[in-house]
């Protein structure tokens, strides 16, 4: 006999958490597409950064999957839209990345609002990690964009930027 948790997720909370799974999974796919595109252009550091962030977004998704299931709900593995395969320039790609992170933040904020309306303080508490993570993600994307603006059209600067971001990823791993 399988015992269900004493406190089960409310249907609306389960629904919005499952929608967030889609957002996190789609984010992983977008980063993966950006990684592949960067790698083909010979931007090893940018590709490594994007591959790492694709893995991170998948981990974010899995964290929600496990939370839903542990709280007596049923996490749904979603079908995903195909991400873009071309991104114009590195600058345009990172602008898209920043806009995407802002969109993810809005989605998390909407989820938090539902938690408060439903008085689901356990899920609200769980989601605070995501709020903090999104502050960091937006700041990181903005910081990278600022660096790209400083480089301008300088190809030598892009080479140095690619090496700098590779070092950043190596530091995060170690």
Helix content: over 70%
Q: pLDDT average, as an integer? A: 91
As for the CATH topology, it is Ferritin
Secondary-structure element order, N to C: HHHHH
CATH superfamily membership: Ferritin, core subunit, four-helix bundle
- How many β-strands, per DSSP? 0
How would you explain this protein's 3D organization?
The protein is mainly α and 174 residues long. It has one domain (11-75, 86-173): Ferritin, core subunit, four-helix bundle (Ferritin). Helices cover 78% and strands 0% of the residues. It has helices at residues 11-40, 44-70, 90-117, 121-151, 155-173. The longest helix has 31 residues, at 121-151. It is elongated, with a radius of gyration of 18 Å. The termini are far apart. The mean pLDDT is 91.
